[in-house]
Amino acid sequence: MSTTTITASVTIAGETVPRVELTPVAVDLLRSLWEEHGPLMFHQSGGCCDGSSPMLFMADEFITSDQDVRLGQFDLAPAGDPAQPLDFWMSAEQFSYWSHTFLTVDVVPGRGSGFSAEAPRGVRFLIRSELMTTMTPFAGTDQIEADAEAPPAQATIPA
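^ thats the sequence. predicted structure below, dont judge the formating
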């Protein structure tokens, strides 16, 4: 059985539409890294270095605060296995710029930041984004339903 895309659960109060997903290749890499390191988490800072690339940390290695937004939580576990929760965080400042996008975490060849757990493997995580169909995609229930029915526009955030 091949790995499928995993969509994160909704974690922002008042929202009903997910904001982030993992490609199958990202799921496979994350499961392998989980076996090696244990519980993991993503943080998207928008800061220096690889600011447009999500950084993968061991869950207890990076401390979040009220200056971060948890965009979603994934369960990496294959069906029937114990849960393997992985949170996806973004700095609040970065979220103010990207709040109108749906994010897909993918994997590409190349070396990203040395701080991210995948760096020694010669690959890096990359964000691909799809623009939401309105300026205020999560303003209310009616708008959320309209966004869910409309196909998103395609866009890619350069690394």
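The two ends are 32 Å apart (CA to CA).
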